[in-house]
Amino acid sequence: MNTQYKKGVLELCVLSLLTRHDCYGYEIAEYLSTRIDIADGTVYPILRKLKSDGLVTTYLSEASGGPPRKYYSLTKLGENSFAAERSAYLTFAKAIESILEEETK
Amino acid sequence: MTKAEYLEQLKRELNRLDVGDTEEIIFEYEQHFAFKLADGHSEEEIAAALGPPAAIAAQFAADGSKRATGKSGKKAVLIVWLTLLGIPEALLDLAFAAFGVVVFAASAAFGTAGACLIMRLNIAGLIPSMPYPGAILLGVCLLALAVLFFVLGIYCFAFLRQFIRASVRWRKNVLSEAALPLLPASPQFSPKKRRVLRTVLLVSLAAFGILFVVGYAVLALQAGALEFWHVYGWFV
Fold first, then answer.
1. What is the mean pLDDT of chain A?
2. The whole model's pTM is what?
3. Interface mutation target, options A42, A44, A56, A69, chain B, most CBs of B under 10 Å
4. Contact yes or no for A24 and B31 at CB 8 A
5. Between chain A and chain B, how many beta carbons pairs sit less than 8 Å apart?
6. Containing domain of residue B163, as a range?
7. Per-residue pLDDT tens for B156-169?
8. Of B51, B177, B180, Cβ closest to residue A68
9. Do A33 and B49 touch (CB under 8 A)?
10. ipTM of the shown complex
11. pLDDT in tens, B175-192
12. Which of A42, B37, B159, B209 is the most buried (most CB within 10 A)?
C-alpha cells in the first residue's frame, strides 16, 4: 500500500486514540502497528510533529518500578483540530469509496 | 542489528540531519526496545520492525522542528538565575547541616554524661557529685535525652536530603520541558520507619520528662532542700 497517503491519516488516528485517554509513546506505536501495516518506528516522528504543532503536550509520569514514562495528552487545539479533520476525512473517504465502487460496477 | 547498534545509527543520522533534541527522541526508542524486550522479542526483531534508522531520521527531519536556536539564549539566562538562587539556598543547606551536626554532638554529649552518672565515672571532675539513687535516675534521664536528640538529628538530615532532592527536581523541570512530578519538601520515610521513629521519639521524650521529675524529687528529698545543688556544692 502506498505509504504517502497513509502518513497523513496516521496523525488523525493518533489524535483519535488520544481523545479517549492519555497514552505513552509505546502504547500508541503498538496500537497503530497492530491495526495498520506500518513500521513501528514511524509513529514517534508523528508524535513529535503533533507536539511541535501544539496539538499534543507531553508529561512524564513515574511508573511504579521503572523509568518515568512520557505520556502524550491532547491539547485544546488538538481537540478542535481533530473534530474538524475527522469530519473532513470521513466525508472525503465516503466520496472516494463511492467513486471506487462505481468504477467496479 | 542489536539495540545498541540501532540507537547509535539513529543518533548519528539525527545529528547528520540536524534534528534537535536527539536525547528525547532516543529516549522514546530506548523505551520501545525495553517494552518489546519485556514482551519476549529479540533485539534484532525489534530493530527490523522499527524500520531503517536512516528512514526514521529522515522522517523526523522532514517534519520540521529544527534545533531551536532562539531557545538556547533564554536557557542561558535561566541557568544564571538558577545559579544565583542556588547560592543562598546552598548556604541555608549548609547552616542546616551544621545544625544537624550540633544536634548529633549534643546527643553524644548527653549520652556520655548519662553513662558517667550511672557508672559513677567522674572524668576531670566535670560531673557534679550527687548521691547514687538520684544519680542513676538523672543518668537514665540524660540517656533518654540523648536518644531524643539522636532521632531529631535523623529527622534533620532526612529533611535536608529531601529538601535538596526537591530542589534538584524543580531545577530539572525548569530547564527541560518534560515535567516530572514535584517532590514534597518534607522527608518521606517508609510507613514502618516512620512509625519506629515516632515511637522512639515519644518514648524517649516521656522517659526524659518523667525521669527528670522523679530524679529531681529523689535528690531534693535526700538533700532535704528544694534547691539541692547548694547542699552538694555544685556551683562553688
1. 86
2. 0.50
3. A44
4. yes
5. 71
6. 71-236
7. 999 999 889 888 88
8. B180
9. yes
10. 0.84
11. 776 566 777 777 778 888
12. A42
